[in-house]
Q: What sequence folds into this?
């Protein structure tokens, strides 16, 4: 079945770039997503990428997609303490459902 | 303001009692979803509904029940048959009628504690 995997934890210094990685298994996914979750809150959509794109940039966020390797990454430039949160990648399946990874906890050190 | 509301934010129950979590959306979305999140884990799909009066089991439906009598409402009942009900429950919705992506919009969550 479909599976989405992420590393569990990432720590960076404020001002550095953060790169969060994700691998997925369903090559037919049309869209892939990045969500952010702050403590005790719901998930907030950060960005998404269409599967025929290699890259998408949105202000400090850059998404890279390697469809051959089924690898997705999220780069956050100039990481701030307010970026500390859990980041989930997700792929669409064929029946309007999203398959989520287990989340990467990003800690930004001052 | 359009969005998804879940109430209450915190819920406490005694073991053996059924409890119903509320989820309401005014986004006119046709599909709605319930997820369970445990500490350090991702989201696991409990139930989803793509249209009024119809719903499907997700990956961990045992011990849960839902109804979808109205488009804007998708309540989740955690029954006494659910062995480990203490968790953070998230409701989401999406518009599946368009041709674009099916991004899901999430509510703020309900933290259920059963003792």
A:
């Amino acid at each position: 079945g479909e599976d989405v995997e992420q590393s569990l934890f990432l720590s960076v210094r404020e001002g550095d770039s953060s790169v969060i990685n994700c691998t997925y298994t369903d090559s037919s996914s049309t869209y892939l997503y990045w969500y952010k979750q702050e403590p005790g809150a719901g998930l907030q959509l950060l960005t998404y990428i269409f599967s025929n794109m290699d890259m998408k940039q949105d202000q400090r966020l850059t998404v890279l997609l390697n469809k051959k390797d089924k690898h997705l990454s999220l780069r956050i430039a100039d990481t701030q303490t307010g970026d500390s949160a859990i980041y989930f990648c997700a792929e669409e399946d064929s029946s309007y459902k999203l398959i989520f990874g287990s989340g990467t906890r990003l800690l930004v050190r001052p | 303001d359009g969005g998804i509301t879940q109430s209450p934010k915190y819920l406490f129950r005694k073991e053996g009692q059924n409890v119903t979590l509320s989820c309401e959306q005014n986004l006119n979305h046709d599909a709605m979803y319930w997820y369970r999140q445990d500490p350090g884990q991702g989201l696991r799909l409990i139930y989803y509904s793509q249209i009024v009066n119809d719903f499907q089991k997700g990956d961990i439906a045992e011990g849960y029940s839902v109804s979808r009598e109205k488009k804007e409402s998708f309540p989740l009942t955690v029954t006494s048959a659910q062995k480990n009900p203490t968790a953070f429950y998230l409701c989401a919705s999406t518009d599946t009628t368009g041709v674009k992506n099916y991004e899901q919009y999430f509510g703020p969550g309900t933290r259920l504690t059963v003792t």
Notes: Residues 5 and 101 of chain A are 5 Å apart (CA to CA). Chain A has a mean pLDDT of 92. Chain A touches chain B through 24 residues (CB under 8 Å).
